[in-house]
Each structure stands twice: as structure tokens, then as C-alpha cells.
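Example for tutorial group B:
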């Protein structure tokens, strides 16, 4: 029985479903998901559940919005005049993700959720905000994280799999 430990690299297979039972994401047919335990590489509720498991364990867990991507915040939804996009306005499409700057000067990823004749509606909520997430997990393995991985806080090969709003899974 190999217990999962903090700062170890954990490898899992997963199936993620919404409350209606529709598959949202899966590692099935893909590489397993690997992350560093305790570095907030995945949603907090899932990391907490995995931390209690051993290598080889299979389990199902339901993660509430507060322990996943949070509740929807309607103050993060803004209608912006198309004129603010200048010559690039024709490149903006429904569902596109854009990086904008907040009032504090911080970068933020938003999604285009509506296009009208004069405005573009941008939503700064994570696409799964407000969703209760249903996971089927199999813990495949674990290893010690390298010093470089610990310094960076994430796995180099996983850099491109993480979403821009702060986490994997």
C-alpha cells in the first residue's frame, strides 16, 4: 500500500461528468493526468480526496462548486462595445477565449459568450464555475517530484495541459 504524499507527482486516470451524467473530460485514450500534490495544480476538492488514497485505488467523488471552480460571479460578465476591439473585431468569435487586463492591471482570461450588433459580451468566470463535478478516479502511481518541478510548482511536460485560469482538472 503506497500512500500519496505531499510534494509527490501523482498520476491518475479520470472521467469527469456533470450533474446530468454527461462526460465533460476524460483521460481515457489519452495520457494519464500527472500533477504535484499540494501545489494547487488541480481543483482543491479533488486534491483533498486524492490525498487520502493509495496507489491503485479507484473511487468516485462529487466535488461541489466551492471546492472546484467556485460559484458563478455575474460581476465578471461585461458587455463591451465592439469599437474597443478596433481592427481586430472581425477576428472575435463566439466561444473565443481572450486575455484582457483587469482594472488592477492583472491579466485575466475571458470567454466571448455573446455577439450583438454593437457589443461583445465577455465572461470572466471559469466555464465550469457553479458546476458540481462528478469524478471517477484511478490512482495509477506516484513518484518524488524533482527539485526543478518543486521550484516551478508544476510539471514541465504538463505546462500546456493546464487551463489558463488556474488549474488542471
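The residue assignment follows.
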Amino acid at each position: 500500500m503506497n500512500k500519496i504524499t505531499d510534494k509527490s507527482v501523482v498520476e491518475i486516470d479520470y472521467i469527469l461528468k456533470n450533474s446530468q451524467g454527461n462526460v465533460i473530460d476524460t483521460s481515457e485514450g489519452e495520457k494519464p493526468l500527472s500533477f504535484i500534490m499540494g501545489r494547487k495544480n488541480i481543483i482543491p476538492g479533488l486534491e483533498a480526496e486524492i490525498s487520502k488514497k493509495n496507489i491503485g485505488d479507484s473511487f468516485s467523488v462529487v466535488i461541489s462548486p466551492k471546492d472546484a471552480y467556485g460559484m458563478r460571479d455575474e460581476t465578471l460578465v461585461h458587455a463591451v462595445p465592439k469599437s474597443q476591439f478596433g481592427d481586430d473585431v472581425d477576428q472575435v468569435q463566439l466561444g473565443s477565449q481572450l486575455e484582457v487586463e483587469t482594472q488592477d492591471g492583472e491579466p485575466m482570461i475571458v470567454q466571448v459568450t455573446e455577439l450583438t450588433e454593437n457589443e461583445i459580451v465577455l465572461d470572466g468566470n471559469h466555464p465550469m464555475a457553479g458546476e458540481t463535478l462528478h469524478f471517477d478516479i484511478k490512482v495509477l502511481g506516484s513518484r518524488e517530484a524533482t527539485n526543478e518541478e518543486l521550484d516551478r510548482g508544476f510539471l514541465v511536460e504538463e505546462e500546456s495541459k493546464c487551463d489558463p485560469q488556474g488549474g488542471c482538472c
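The chain has two helices and nine strands. Compare this with the pattern of hydrophobic and polar residues in the output above.
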